[in-house]
């Protein structure tokens, strides 16, 4: 057993290396695949849709906020990976009474890089994790160069994740950090987490760009058609929510996607 500190500052004793891993976090499940952990991952959630082969083959232990402890007990994991925001604290604490549970807390790209590095170390895949980190860092460095070369002030932007009520993102979210790094200025930066907002607030926000996310609410063209008459001076665009909110291996593709989005808007 080795002692590790998770992103909540908790001490967790984990076998070196763990051989029966359960992921309660979709973006981290994809990371575990990227780290080539294969059969060592024995359980995932029903929302762990990437990679598709794991979604089809791995044992599903319920949802991120509705974990089936009975299934987890049958799998006898020697490591469970959770997330402060995506999982329910009481459920995670109940599991931690029986198994090593390492909890991530990712609100910025820096947090995500620290998480990837830590999981690479815990799972005895430090070099594979380092390769991921190098490519991610290179991608975001290139994105920053493109933004700086354009010498364009950040675009006043609102990012919407839900409908009825409309919900946006505050300044302490991972999505906000992705917006900032991509050349956008979150017009709701003075809020925290995921506040509900009204059409009137959107109209008064000064946003020049409205991004409608593909998840968790699946916005479509019909929602642009619904909102555009109410926001005639705002450009409304559908965006891939996974590339704004998933903080595992999907970060390898996010800078390229953000670059294409900026070109589309220029």
Question: CATH topology of the largest domain, what is it called?
Answer: Rossmann fold
CATH architecture of the largest domain: 3-Layer(aba) Sandwich
Q: What count of domains describes the coordinates?
A: 2
CATH class of the largest domain: Alpha Beta
Shape estimate: globular
**Oligomeric description of these chains:** single chain
| Percentage of residues assigned to helices | 40-55%
Q: Tell me about the biggest sheet?
A: 5 strands, parallel
Low-confidence stretches: none
Compute the separation of the termini in Å. 53 Å
Structural class: alpha/beta
The string of secondary-structure elements, in order, is EEEHEHEEEHEHEHHEEHEEHEHEHH
The strands making up the biggest β-sheet line up spatially as 5-4-3-8-9
Average pLDDT metric: 97
| Count of extended strands | 15
- Can you identify the CATH superfamily of the largest domain? Nitrogenase molybdenum iron protein domain
What percent strand?
A: 15-25%
Number of helices: 11
**Over the alpha carbons, how many angstroms does the gyration radius reach?**
19 Å
